[in-house]
Amino acid sequence: MNSARHAPTGLATTSELGVLGVRDLDFTVDRVPVGAGLGTLVERYWMTSWDLPTGRPASVTLLPHPCVNLVFDRGQLMISGVGSERFTYAYQGRGRVFGIKFRPGGFQPFHGGPVAELTDQVRPLATLWGETDATAFADELAAAAELPDLVAVAERWLRAHWPEPDSEVARVGRIVRALLHDRSITRVQDVTERFGLSMRTLQRLFQRYVGVSPKWVLRRYRLHEAAARLAEGAGGTWADVAVDLGYFDQSHFIRDFVRAVGLTPVAYAEACLRREAPLSA
Description:
Keywords: DNA-binding, Transcription, Transcription regulation. The structure is a single chain. The protein is an alpha+beta fold. The protein has 2 domains: 27-160, no CATH class; 167-273, Orthogonal Bundle (Arc Repressor Mutant, subunit A). The protein has 11 helices and 8 strands. The chain has a 6-stranded antiparallel sheet with strand order 1-2-7-4-5-8.
């Protein structure tokens, strides 16, 4: 059964979209809001869990958000940078993956350097916090029985390593929220005008704090919504979806969609209608 516990959305800098195809009924997604004082840098906690019959494999294909995650999977605690391409996660038997999703820009104060260094990278947390702390953190997560226990462990370690305040994170957050929610923003130039930044300053800000360009973020959020609407069979055609999301050039929408998802909007919608997911990394 697929379910989710939703975090408050008032200050959200990411959506809860990004799973491609019809959502698989073989896994459960839980999302948990962060504790007091941590929401400036952390978006939410999440856990994916599954319990499959012996011999039946499954997989899920994701279109990543512009976020760094700390991911605890199969005993390993890893820093997962922004993924620029879709990827497929295969699973079987019984298991779970726990993650800390940082806000876009929110991991930079922990990392110290440009977050673009982490894009499409997966690195052991030990490379940042040292072997002793990373191992102790992973051991405590492995011993946690339930999701609230995992969250409690994560919050204790986050607070112990909490960085100094950085006002640029809040500025990045305001820009990213606008990219996520404001349909009047259809070009990066709209962002520079809205926030009084030069194009060069904006690009440098995102390279250092987010890891991908503002154009990439805008496109990714719109494609998340397009994929969700097509999968749900919402009213209207894919052309209607393209216009609603600010694509005035339908060929541009098709090109972006195929590059991100691997199928045309029509083929994707038809696959979802048949409850098929011919999607792979």
